[in-house]
Amino acid sequence: MKYLPLILIVSNEFCERFCFYGLRSLLFPFLREKLSMSVQHSTIIVHLFYVSCYLFAIVGGILSDSIWGRFKTILILSLFYIVGCFMLFFVSLLESNLYLFFLGLALISIGTGGIKPAISTFGGDQFRNNSKKELSTFFSVFYFFINAGAMLSVFITPILSNLGCLDNDTCYPLSFGLPTLLLMISIILFTLGSDQFIKLAPNSALLERIFLVFTGKTENKGKNDGIENLKKEFEEQIFDDIIYKYANDAAIQHSFISEPNSATNKEQKQCEMFFKPVDITHPTKIEKESENTQIEDKNELQTIKSLFKVFLPTSCFWMVYDQQSSSWIEQADKMNLKIFNTRILPAQMQSFNAILTLLFIPIFNKLIYPRISLAPVQKMGIGMICASLSFIIAAIVETVNRNHQISILYQIPQYILIVAGEIFLVITGLEFAYTNSPKDYKSIILSAWLLMVSIGNSLVIIITSLNLFPPTNKEIYSFLFYAFICLISSIPLFTSKYKNEK
Predict the structure, then answer these.
(1) Which residues span the membrane (predicted)?
(2) What residues does 336 pair with on adjacent strands?
């Protein structure tokens, strides 16, 4: 087992996540402060950005599994990513070019979304023996460094944005520039490690196979192709066999005439047996292989459908989780931001997520998981319950803060619960998606897992746009509504067919 490829992959992910979470923490305040957008419009744009990021995960999964391969997919789409980051950097200098701003967000969505399913599965590919224990350790370390990058980013970039520069009281060019620089470093590191990686070849027939499997046409396709391939094979072989047969017949006949009692007589019988007529209209072997392929395709289809049924409820987890970057920032902005005479920026509270995640991962792995015997889907269900409870706490905080302004530190309990939910659901879900997906579909299955983030954020956009709640207590009702949806959505995970698989 070579550790250098894993170190390069994890380092690349650390830098990329620093960039993404830095942009994520800046997006809402930048829209509000510099582009003068309303809370509602800023919320919709933030979650629309998340939707597009994770929607492109499907494209990245297809590219990495069937066209470019994982390494090439990561490298090419990272270039889209870096160009988009430079565009946001220039917009932060101009503070007015909306077209360039949205184009930059689009390119970042293509880049970060496209490489998401490829990078973690590419890391899993480096384990030749596919050891479950080693894979589990890798995904925990991988997620640890994701959160290390996120923690540093969401703490540092808001500070940089509030430094005065270029005759302004803010410095968004600096705060956008640092994540862009680290992304460049991540691309360089990844390129330098090219010769060290295990690179699995893409399956070029995968797209056609997926289409045939989902349209139920594999049976006829497999059977017809099997017969046609057999006929073609025999047509090519029979011409050579006929020449060979007659040449041997002539030699055998000559030997038989000259030496009638020789062993050649036996050879003639063997030759006749070998060259007996072949009925190519009954390709039994090929048909059997085609039937096996059809069974394999059907089994893979059933696996994909079963996994999708597990994934779908988790979209409601992301519906609440990603509001840390929108509604929770807005809530923090209305609270007392001073701690020991030091002003905490609302966006900096997101650093608690990363800090708590780094603390909780070893605690969960060493102390909690060994003492509970739960299937992965049950852990994921508990994660959704924790996320639901975090929004109930957020509603309580919002209610209390209405009467008299309270410290921003009162948000910490909701961060503790959302992080516990994240560890129960996200890390477990990553490993579950990788280990249960068919070999040729790993990036695509992980894309489907990431697609749930897109669906969850789409729900936020829809609910926000509908203005379902009265303006006076809008935030309180909204938090409780999201909590209820998330709680109800956890039920299918506890009743899943995978509930008994430890």
Answers:
(1) 39-62, 74-93, 99-119, 140-160, 172-192, 352-369, 381-400, 412-434, 446-469, 476-495
(2) 407
Q: Is 263 helix (H, G, I), strand (E, B) or coil?
A: coil
How many angstroms from the chain centroid is the CA of residue 282? 45
What DSSP character marks residue 338?
Answer: E
Which residue type is seen at 12?
A: N
Domain borders along the chain are 4-204+295-494, 212-282
Alpha-carbon span 77 to 447, nearest angstrom: 15
Return the closest-CA partner of residue 383 out of 420, 356, 438: 420
What phi and psi values does residue 384 have, to the nearest 5 degrees? -70, -35
CATH topology of domain 4-204+295-494: Growth Hormone; Chain: A; (1.20.1250)
- 178/190 Cα distance (integer angstroms): 19
Which tokens go with 257? 């005439």
What residues have CB less than 8 Å from 148, skipping those under 6 apart? 14, 354, 358
Contact 114, 59 (CB under 8 A): yes
Mean per-residue pLDDT pooled into runs of 10, the chain (502 residues): 83 92 90 87 91 87 87 94 94 84 95 88 78 76 84 89 84 93 89 87 73 59 48 44 40 40 49 48 53 62 84 95 92 91 85 86 88 89 97 97 92 96 90 81 80 92 90 92 96 84 64
Please count the other Cβ atoms lying within 10 Å of the Cβ belonging to residue 96: 10
Q: What is the pTM of this model?
A: 0.72
Q: What is the DSSP letter of 374?
A: -
List of long-range contacts for 38-46, beta carbons under 8 Å, 24+ apart: 39/330, 40/464, 42/326, 43/326, 43/327, 43/330, 43/460, 43/464, 44/461, 44/464, 44/465, 46/325, 46/326
Q: Which of 370, 376, 488 is nearest to 427 (CA)?
A: 376
Please state, in angstroms and rounded to a whole number, the distance separating the CA atoms of residues 92 and 31: 11
Identity of residue 155: F
Contact 114, 77 (CB under 8 A): yes
Contact predicate 135/1, CB 8 Å: no
DSSP per-residue string spanning 145-172: HHHHHHHHHHHHHHHHHTS-BTTBS--H
